[in-house]
Amino acid sequence: MAHGTGAQGAGRYPALAGNPRLATPQYAMTVVLNGLHGMPPFRGVLSDQQVADVVNYLVRDLNGHDATLTTEDVAAARLPLNTTDSYNPL
Predict the structure, then answer these.
(1) Is there a contact between 81 and 43 (Cβ–Cβ < 8 Å)?
(2) Which residues of the chain are under the pLDDT cut of 50?
């Protein structure tokens, strides 16, 4: 597991459990959609539902916060970049 046992972090991979940045879904959604540092963007790979599921897992299940990201939230966050629906790292 890249983020370590129990999502506590490992090497250069930050902790996901107990991470204060994951108190609300907006930060996690932005990182999942657009990437950050060594993490690639998943904007063109994951559907709105998949992004919402991943973010809700990070925020609620790993961090115990009562916040819910909807597919509508994800769709709205995609609009400003006007990117294509496929990710090509080349």
Answers:
(1) yes
(2) 87-90
Per the listing, tokens 């690639």 go with 40
Question: Does a structural domain hold residue 1?
Answer: no
Whole-structure pTM value: 0.76
CATH of the domain at 45: 1.10.760
Distance CA 3, CA 42 (A): 17
Determine contact, residues 21/58, Cβ cutoff 8 Å: no
Residue 87: both structure tokens together: 């990710």
CB 65 within 8 A of CB 55: no
Tokens standing for residue 27: 């930060």
